[in-house]
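Entry for the shared binder. Reason: the reviewer on the internal report wants the predicted structure included alongside the sequence.
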Amino acid sequence: MIYAGTKGWLDTIPVEDVGRFESELLTSFRATHAELLDQIRTAGTLPDTDKLDAALQTFVDNFAPSHQ
């Protein structure tokens, strides 16, 4: 979430949806991008940022804010 926030991925997310965004992002990444989370957890480094950014872009594109 810190990476997503500092890189602008939350800029279009309404404040009231940030908590849900975080929860759904983690659920999604655990299901489809576990290798990225494992690298962060075990190596203590960011994975390939191109892969991370692509995964975040896909998630953001499919995230539906509460009030549209």
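Summary line for the report: The chain has four helices and no strands.
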